Amino acid sequence: MLRFLLLSLALAAGIAGAAERHVATLSDPAGDDVGDGTLLYPTGGVLQPGDLDLRSLRIHRDGDGYWFTATFGNFIHENWWSPKGDDAGEFSKQGQHRLPFGFNLDIYIDTDRKSGSGNLFTLPGRQARIDRRYAWERVVVLSPRPKTMRSHLLGKLRETFPGRPEREAEASIDGTMYFAAYRQKLDRSISFFVPNAFLGDSDPTNWAVTAFVTVAAAVVDAKDLGVMQLTDEPSSSTLGHTSTTLPPPLIDVLLPTAARQYKILSSALPLTGYSLANNAATDDDGKYSAEAFISRLTGLKESLDRKLIDESTYKAQRQKILNEL
Predict the structure, then answer these.
(1) 280 phi and psi, to 5 degrees?
(2) Longest dimension (CA), the chain
(3) For the domain that residue 190 is a member of, what is the CATH number?
(4) What is the pLDDT of residues 102-119, one digit of tens each?
(5) Are 110 and 136 in contact (CB under 8 A)?
(6) Inside any domain, residue 265
(7) CA–CA separation, 247 and 243 (whole Å)
(8) Quick check: pTM over 0.85?
(9) Helices (H), 184-288
(10) 253 DSSP β-pair partners
(11) Structural domain of residue 94, as residue ranges?
């Protein structure tokens, strides 16, 4: 009897293992966690280069749904944020706000691969649009506060359409947006689950995904929906930048090259992504225009002159820009 039970368990485990299927692993270059190339991290040292540096996104499925695993440059650590003290945005271990991790990861999924057939907008606070060739039908959001984010988005919908029935408002969000609540951290990686019921019966090998990382704000509101925004000068609660124009608050976009990311974000172009059919982005890399390089170098020099960055930071970022030529 015991032998039969052990054999049954072994067979069940084998069947479960066999049911798991790798869908895709999408790679992102190291060291491109600076948005358009000019972003400056918040002061205080809580976030370091590499913390938000997305290195890969792996997708696999089992009988119940899909597992997404995002791997970053550094160990994924908690953040503490205090609304008290001299600086209203001070991160502190004595603070009242604990974030299990310090970033948001948005994954916009084009399930039908029909140009322009889906949505082109991104969630509030992202300040970006999706290229029509990657128009999405579903978005999966990994956030330290998924319930709060969904609640604020629902509140915004109620405010915009006050006469809309509550169930209809909830269905419009839950049918297209999934805020992942079940997640597991391991060293530099975080895995999160999305059920089949949300993603439907489309073939995942025909999907395309557009994904990016933002800094998680300590307080979620309807306007920015949990994304830390930019100001000219970085503070402990805002990002800074050295560009002559205000870039979007996207830290790292899932793309095969840093040059493509910098080009898209510095030129305010719609975001593109990866096609899972060939495990590659479909656009050519392209190169910066001379104007874009000049703009970045000029903005960097102005930041040095205004003492927003020190000499060593200026030289390092200037060399990084020149290396792209």
Answers:
(1) -150, 155
(2) 80
(3) 2.60.40.1190
(4) 999 999 999 999 988 999
(5) yes
(6) no
(7) 7
(8) no
(9) 196-199, 258-266
(10) 212
(11) 22-257+271-283
